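We were asked to recover a plausible sequence for a given structure. The inputs and outputs are reproduced exactly as logged, with field labels preserved.

PROBLEM: sequence recovery
POSITIONS: 120
GIVEN STRUCTURE:
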């Protein structure tokens, strides 16, 4: 193994162990745990065997093999941004509905307290 392979293998192993540790401690949400575990396995494989990017580049007809992980990372980041926007939109709708329910409940409480005062 060459020096860059050892370095990339160490980085990928550290990332893999960290991701698995966070999944096991329930720090990462269960819906994201599978995604992070899969991503850490892929990083571990590519970090340990960087020759796989050369094989993939040859099969895809890419002239500069190291650009493949960069393109994949960009695609993953774009997907993550899209998923975050979708989750944020869902949370916003839930929050607005919750605020409406609280307002209705406050209105009912105020009406009951007024009717109790009027009865006395």
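RECOVERED SEQUENCE:
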């Amino acid at each position: 193994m060459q020096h860059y392979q050892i370095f990339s293998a160490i980085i990928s192993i550290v990332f893999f162990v960290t991701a698995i540790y966070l999944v096991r401690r329930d720090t990462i949400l269960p819906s994201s745990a599978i995604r992070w575990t899969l991503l850490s396995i892929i990083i571990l494989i590519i970090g340990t065997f960087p020759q796989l990017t050369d094989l993939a580049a040859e099969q895809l007809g890419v002239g500069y093999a190291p650009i493949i992980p960069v393109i994949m990372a960009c695609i993953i980041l774009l997907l993550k941004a899209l998923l975050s926007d979708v989750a944020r939109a869902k949370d916003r709708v839930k929050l607005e509905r919750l605020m409406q329910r609280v307002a209705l409940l406050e209105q009912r409480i105020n009406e009951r307290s007024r009717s109790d005062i009027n009865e006395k």
